[in-house]
Amino acid sequence: MSAIADLRYMALALQQARRGRYTTQPNPRVGCVLVKDDVIVGEGFHARAGSPHAEIAALRQAGYRAYGATAYVTLEPCAHHGRTPPCANELVIAGIKRVVMATLDANPLVAGKGKKILEEAGIDTVVGVLEDDARALNAGFLRRMNGGLPWVRAKIATSLDGRTAMASGESRWITGAEARRDVQKWRAMSSAIITGIGTVLADDPALTVRPDEWADWTHGEVVPPWRVVLDSHFRTPLNAKLLKVPGRTLIVGTHSVLDRMTALSDAGADILVLPGRDGRVDVQVLLKLLGEEGANEVLIEAGAGVNGAFARAGLIDEYVLYQAPILLGSSARPMLDWPLQSMRDQRRLTITDTRMVGGDIRHLAKPK
After folding, report:
1. Catalytic residue among 43, 55, 90, 301, which?
2. How far apart, in Å, do the first and last CA atoms of the chain sit?
3. Which of 77-91, 235-249, 279-293 has the weakest average pLDDT?
4. Which one, of 174, 119, 83, 143, lies nearest residue 290 by Cα?
């Protein structure tokens, strides 16, 4: 195969991988395309934890035609027995002659071992085709496997003058229906949604991915993200919506208020007490624990206090900013509680995407 053909078929494998964008967590999103004599004979993606991996799905579709084919895989084939057998061994058994990988796996159980199995069987391997795209698709998983934190996004809806709520806390609705539907996709990509007690008390959000929203843009049922509430003194109301919907709700405090903790636990919440910093939950410790529990990507949907805490700690990897064509004025609340004092304190962002979502503007931006 030529280098151009490798790029073309890996791009198709990435398309396959993206089909599992909302369903695979905590596993990575992986796609595979099998090509023989410049004809695609099999393709597949990993749909959810416990289901066949992308390589197995593609091999099943190809059948005997897999013999002598080239496999394009967006992530190094696994080399360990988990819920499914090692994919590297299955590629060997199927008679694959060449494997092109976008990137190696950061999982210590794989991390070059899959590539080694293939090469020891006499299979040619190539690594690094469209690697940046593949790594971006699994940024949280790869970081977590390296012993790091989840990938953290802050979703913030603002007016054109950068305000998120009136001084009273009133904020519904700044953005339009299309933008709110778009948020459902960011929720669905996330293992956990973090909010603060202020948002719970003011808005009583459910923080769910609504089935009527995702039915037309995902393949299979979305894995419900955990709801994580930063609530130092466990003030979450027992009738809060996020305690009454399916899925896990974790309430994180810094003070042991036993009667409230017991009542919230009886209402279905998981309770966690962490060391505090200035009376607030230490968000870095929290992210580390979420990563250890399998969270790849985390979405913050909160007010200026929580957003500011993560920003000040340097823990926001990406901003998802929705701007509505309205003005809320100087008394309204800011995006971040982050009192920078001079121009030298400024924090610069790199805008990676800007587009209209209904009548609102959506920016994706990363800290420099």
Report:
1. 55
2. 38
3. 77-91
4. 143
